[in-house]
Write a structure and sequence with these properties.
Largest sheet of chain A: 5 strands, antiparallel
CATH architecture of the largest domain in chain C: Alpha-Beta Complex
Number of domains of chain C: 2
Structural class of chain A: alpha+beta
Strand content of chain C: 15-25%
Number of helices of chain A: 1
CATH class of the largest domain in chain C: Alpha Beta
Strand order of the largest sheet of chain C: 9-11-7-12-10-13-14
Order of helices and strands of chain A: EEEEEH
CATH architecture of chain A: Roll
Number of strands of chain C: 14
Strand content of chain A: 35-45%
Number of strands of chain A: 5
Number of domains of chain A: 1
Chains: A alpha+beta, B alpha/beta, C alpha+beta
Oligomer: heterotrimer
Distance between the termini of chain A: 34 Å
Largest sheet of chain C: 7 strands, mixed
Helix content of chain C: 25-40%
Largest interface: A-B, 40 and 57 residues
Order of helices and strands of chain C: HEEEHEHEEEHEHEHEHEHEEE
Shape of chain A: elongated
CATH topology of the largest domain in chain C: Phosphoribosyl-aminoimidazole Synthetase, Chain A, domain 2
Chain lengths: 76, 358, 332
């Protein structure tokens, strides 16, 4: 079961909940499976829960890496 | 969409495909074990970009696909009880058991509702006197969400909420696959979201005990292609994480804790395969009051499925079009085995997105 | 709160009350001289005739309701054959217990949109069924229009070389309705695209030739392309990159595992237009509100009859199939 989508936390609510923005759609998710999440953080949303936080530093590194590979390949 | 669009760049994907093909040494085949990967690969035509040097094979990665006939029969029997409202993810509605699917049961009068989240099911329980059962299907990505819901139900003293757990675990299945005599694969493409929960360390036994290279992949085309590339360049077998933005070596400890508070591993049958030890999840004894799996229900006679080749397809031994039923007696509209039923099943993906059926 | 009861469908005084106090005031006409049938004077020509039923749940959704749907759906079926829509019939099947206020809102919508589309509701029927036998309200319609001389628009009319044009964003209606249903609580800002398309189609016919046309309702754009390819014995190729999809629709599809290609629309048409007329027709479409975002999404090509292929953003080719049924939200 793998359909999970990155979403930005736009509001932290009572009861371990948060309002998140999935690039154009807002929904409420449970934060009971993650820790230390604040507004502006990115989380993976699956079945109404945030199942993990997205490490933005790692994301940036992966993006840079694949773009670098593309450059080296020279087929841009 | 942030953290999605950046990983869909056509230039990047094609460049990685070219590099991977050159590094493959003539031929390499990698197995992905996540239905969502199967779907993503088919939808983006990634197989085409890698052929013929690199082949991507679909393994038993569809939790819906590997649900046994018996388990579906049990779900239908429970759903058909007069005071029960069965809630389920949409994926399960059309899975055939011995005598039809949940959708068929619904047509016969069973109260079955599709929900997006187990929390929605809990909400339904709060709004009715009926017994509300949630059909828990999925790997480690989903099991913690169901576990968290069960804990919430217990904390809120909801006495009409139950779960029928058909959850399964990925690492035991991988071990069962790798132990097969005829299992020859150049590497595993591992499921990114399952790994977000369980981490990357748990897969170390695959390179260490079986010499199989592994790469944990995200789900966008560039993620998948990058992970395949990592497999191709690997000098000695190890576990590499392409999906580092979501996967840590130890996974998500909080989610794992929640899962372990509610579930314990049990031996279960994987459809088309065999019983895999410790590969299923059952509610712990202290939560048995919420366990719909403990209910006594009458089940129909099991249906023999001799012609169905799902098992061989799941093990990567044959392709969908090698099965005599594919696209003839077995189609998305009239599925025989789960490989065709689930929208992400191997055969359904091939049927929908590839040209092979024509 | 005043509710509709079985007696309101009984043919007696209660029903007369319903008609004279609710239906006729909103739709026009009068209870005293209501006839068994409307006799219509139609200009000479071919008569286009269609029927449709509306069972949408929920009855009210962002961008519309069952009343608006009923008018637009019927008008559009006529417009897709090149007809000028003229008259509608309206059959109501009301579930016992429906609040009068709900019925009035739906009929107000019918009246409003019939007016906007330039059609008249000239015949109707009312039945009330027991609680549980209808989702609040079912509506059945029939529509009559006239096809001007020389116009020949048919689903079989797509020809090699034609441009395939759509009048705007796909997936809006399906997502708007889905997110109103309990259990799928997403604020997407997506609003149904439900709209009458007859003004748009007239602009198109004035600008050039339209070979084949169909509105993309259930089954979405994907189903229409397959139907058009099969009926015309043609092969179709579309560009994934050219498909207009709103962010909100994309986001909800990602969350629920839907393919926007197969999601319902209620204000979208796909037209197969000879390449020589492509620019003129596009320009004419963009001058009309319902066609502002019109775009060419593909072409009818040399290929296997009935085959629809989508060239993905990665440059690979993906075979498009007929959807097998309702898309269900998935998490896998």
């Amino acid at each position: 079961m793998c359909l999970a989508v990155p979403a930005e936390v736009i509001e932290v609510l009572e009861g371990e909940l948060a309002m998140v923005d999935v690039g154009g759609a807002k929904t409420k998710v449970s934060l009971s499976l993650v820790d230390g999440v604040g507004v502006g953080d990115y989380v993976l949303v699956h079945a109404g829960f945030a199942i993990e936080t997205i490490d933005e530093e790692e994301a940036r590194k992966t993006i840079e890496l694949i773009e670098e590979l593309e450059r080296l390949e020279g087929t841009r | 969409m942030k953290y999605v669009d950046e990983f869909r760049s056509p230039g990047v994907v094609k460049a990685l495909a070219e590099k991977t093909k050159r590094l493959s040494g003539g031929h390499a085949s990698y197995m992905e074990v996540c239905g969502t990967h199967t779907m993503a690969i088919s939808r983006s035509g990634l197989r085409e970009l890698l052929a013929p040097e690199v082949e991507l094979i679909s393994g038993p990665g569809c939790p819906v696909c590997v649900t046994s006939d018996r388990d579906i029969d049990r779900a239908i029997a429970i759903a058909s009880l007069p005071d029960v409202t069965m809630t389920t993810f949409g994926d399960m509605m059309k899975v055939p058991g011995s005598e039809g699917s949940l959708a068929d049961a619904q047509a016969r009068g069973a109260d079955v509702r599709v929900v997006y989240s187990p929390l929605d099911s809990l909400q339904v329980a709060g709004e009715t006197d009926r017994r509300v059962v949630f059909l828990g299907v999925g790997f480690e990505t989903t099991a913690p969400t169901v576990a968290a819901t069960i804990l919430q139900a217990a904390a809120q003293n909801v006495d009409n909420f139950y779960v029928l757990s058909l959850h399964k675990l990925v690492p035991p299945a991988l071990r069962a696959l790798a132990s097969q005599d005829d299992f020859r694969i150049d590497g595993f493409l591992l499921p990114g979201h399952v790994s977000a929960i369980i981490g990357s360390d748990v897969y170390n036994f695959l390179p260490e005990e079986y010499g199989i290279p592994c790469a944990i992949a995200g789900f966008e085309p560039a993620d998948i292609m990058e992970a395949v590339y990592l497999l191709a360049v690997m000098e000695k077998p190890e576990v590499r994480t392409e999906y580092a933005r979501a996967v840590r070596p130890g996974g998500n400890p909080k989610a794992l804790l929640v899962m372990r508070r509610v579930f314990e591993p049990v031996d279960v049958e994987w459809r088309g395969l065999f019983t895999i030890p410790g590969s299923g999840l059952a509610l712990r004894p202290e939560l048995s009051s919420m366990d719909a799996g403990k209910w006594e229900v009458e089940l129909p006679e099991p249906k023999p499925r001799a012609a169905c080749r799902c098992g061989d397809i799941l093990l990567g031994r044959i392709k969908p079009f090698d099965c005599p039923l594919f696209a003839g007696a077995c189609t998305p509209d009239e599925p025989v085995g789960p490989c065709m039923v689930s929208s992400e099943g191997t055969c359904a993906s091939y049927y929908l997105y590839s040209g092979e059926a024509d | 709160m005043k509710l509709v009861t079985m007696a309101h469908g009984g043919g007696g005084t209660r029903m007369q009350e319903l008609l004279s106090q609710t239906v006729f005031p909103l739709l026009g006409g009068s209870a005293t001289d209501a006839e068994d049938a409307a006799v219509l004077d139609l200009e000479a020509g071919r008569v286009a005739f269609t029927t449709d039923s509306f069972v949408v749940r929920p009855l009210f959704f962002p961008g519309g309701d069952i009343g608006k749907l009923a008018v637009c759906g019927t008008v559009n079926d006529l417009a897709m054959r090149g007809a000028k829509p003229l008259y509608l019939s309206l059959g109501l099947i009301i579930e016992e217990g429906l609040p009068f206020e709900t019925l009035e809102q739906a009929l107000t919508s019918v009246a409003e949109w019939a007016g906007r589309a330039g059609v008249r509701v000239v015949a109707g029927d009312t039945k009330v069924v027991e609680r549980g036998k209808a989702d609040g309200l079912f509506i059945n319609t029939a529509g009559v229009g006239v096809v001007p001389e020389g116009r020949d628009v048919s689903i079989t009319g797509a020809r090699k070389g034609d441009a395939l044009i759509i009048n705007g964003y796909i997936g809006d209606h399906g997502v708007a309705v889905m997110t109103e249903r309990e259990g799928f609580r997403f604020e997407s800002g997506v609003v149904s695209d439900c709209a009458p398309l007859n003004v748009l189609t007239e602009a198109m016919f004035a600008a050039g030739k339209v070979g084949a046309m169909r509105d993309a309702t259930r089954g979405g754009l994907g189903a229409v392309l397959k139907e058009m390819a099969a009926a015309s014995g043609a092969a179709i190729e579309i560009e994934e990159g050219s498909l207009p999809i709103r962010d909100g629709v994309r986001a909800v599809c990602e969350l629920l595992g839907f393919d926007p290609l197969y999601i319902a629309n209620e204000g979208k048409l796909v037209a197969s237009v000879p390449s020589g007329d492509e620019n003129a027709v596009l320009e004419a479409m963009r001058s009309v509100e319902e066609g502002r975002d019109s775009v060419t999404i593909g072409r009818v090509i040399d290929g296997k009859p009935g085959e629809v292929v989508m060239v993905t953003k990665l440059g690979s080719r993906r075979l498009i199939r007929m959807p097998s049924g309702e898309q269900l939200p998935r998490i896998c």
